[in-house]
Amino acid sequence: IKILAIESSCDETAAAVVENGRKVLSNVISTQIDIHTLYGGVVPEIASRKHLERINQVVKEALKQASVTLEDIDAVAVTYGPGLVGALLVGTAEAKAIAYAAGKPLVGVHHIEGHIAANYIENQDLEPPFMCLIVSGGHTHLVVVEDYDKFNIIGRTRDDAAGEAFDKVARSIGLGYPGGPKIDKAAKLGNPDAITFPKAKMSDNPYDFSFSGLKSAVLNYLNHAKMTGEEVNPNDLAASFQKAVVQVLVEHAIRGTKEHGFRKLALAGGVASNSALRASLKEACEKNGITLYYPSPIFCTDNAAMIGAAGYYEYKKGRRSGWDLNAAASLKLGER
Ligand code: ATP
Ligand code: MG
Ligand code: FE
After folding, report:
1. What pTM does this model have?
2. pLDDT at 203 over 80
3. Which SUPFAM superfamilies did the record assign (predicted)?
């Protein structure tokens, strides 16, 4: 089964061809980072316009690189939520037009289900059930992946997502957008024990996360330094902030995995690229007899191959979307 997949939920225009959910025949990503960097973040109207300009070429390129034509495709999968509504509309319209014209079934995919499925691409042996920590620009979820299309969220952020916290803190230190990779890099040159930041604890759900207090603590630290004229070492600040985020993520993920009796933990989303998170989680998993899975960086960030992987399993379960498939900006994981 070959799936043509399309992803346009944020600022990456992407298309891919994936065979049987695990073999990537092509994975084309046209990123808009250079444009949005000028504004310090994603500008929705510009994102939609750029998707529109690029999507036809990106799809064509994905088919070409996979050496297939639309005839060889069994279904068209597309991200229909969550994300920026104008951006999602470009992808869904494109997918509907292609599927309709080629007489192929259409499968709407949840973006986060895609991030989770990115783990299947390079880990041929990974099958549900397992625990998954999703850390992206808009989500921070600890999820029991019960089946390919069945999810139980046991922990979530109460405020900012992990990636959002990275981006906001990076902006306040003057590192620019997107902040995650910049903080990751700066932190390598800094001392993670230079500044102690508070850790938020949720008494009613020990698996939940909160990052806004940490973000405020960083801002307070910066303001205080400005007032007293103390010098701020941005590398130390980045390293200390990153350490605080990573500590909480690792603690909750390991605890959740153990308490739910799993021996497999997967990492997903853009922040899954973070080198400190990977290293710290690897160490904790080894200590606790847990096998850790994570995608290569190219499959962590937004891409269409992960949508093709998720789309394949949805297709196999008989899921089909109608021609009335609409963008769903705030679609919940597991919701149809
Ligand atoms: P969502 O998937 O929740 O809809 P999104 O698609 O915008 O949001 P992703 O593309 O999954 O998010 O991830 C982007 C986020 O990952 C950004 O916040 C970015 O700063 C962060 N990120 C990327 N690389 C790293 C890194 N090395 N360290 C920390 N954060 C990172
Ligand atoms: Mg992006
Ligand atoms: Fe994403």
Report:
1. 0.97
2. no
3. Actin-like ATPase domain
Please tell me the distance from the alpha carbon of residue 315 to that of residue 278, in angstroms, as a whole number.
32
Number of C-beta neighbours around residue 95 at 10 A? 32
Is the preceding omega at residue 297 within 30 degrees of 0, hence cis? no
What's the CA angle centered on 330, arms 78 and 53, to 5 degrees? Answer: 45
Please give the angle made by the CA atoms of 333, 253 and 310, to the nearest 5 degrees: 35
What is the distance between the alpha carbons of residues 281 and 267, in angstroms, rounded to a whole number? Answer: 9
Whole-angstrom CA distances from 55 to 97, 135, 191, 279 are: 12, 26, 43, 36
Q: What is the pLDDT of residues 281-292, one digit of tens each?
A: 999 999 999 999
Tell whether the model's pLDDT for residue 319 goes beyond 90: yes
138 touches ligand 1 (CB under 6 Å): yes
Question: Looking at the predicted structure, is the pLDDT value of residue 274 above 90?
Answer: yes
Amino acid at 254: I
Annotated binding site for Fe cation: 111, 115, 302
**Centroid of ligand 1 to alpha carbon of 269 (angstroms):** 6
CB atoms near residue 144 (< 10 Å): 18
ipTM of this predicted complex? 0.99
How high is the pLDDT of residue 201? Answer: 75
Q: What SS3 class is residue 245?
A: helix
Q: Assign 202 a pLDDT band (cuts: 50, 70, 90).
A: confident
Ligand 1 binding pocket includes 47 (Cβ within 6 Å): no
Residue 326, token pair as written in the block: 């609409």
The mean pLDDT value of the chain amounts to 97
32, 301, 303, 307, best to mutate for ligand 1 pocket (most atoms within 8 Å of CB): 301
The C-alpha atoms of residue 60 and residue 42 are separated, in whole angstroms, by 25
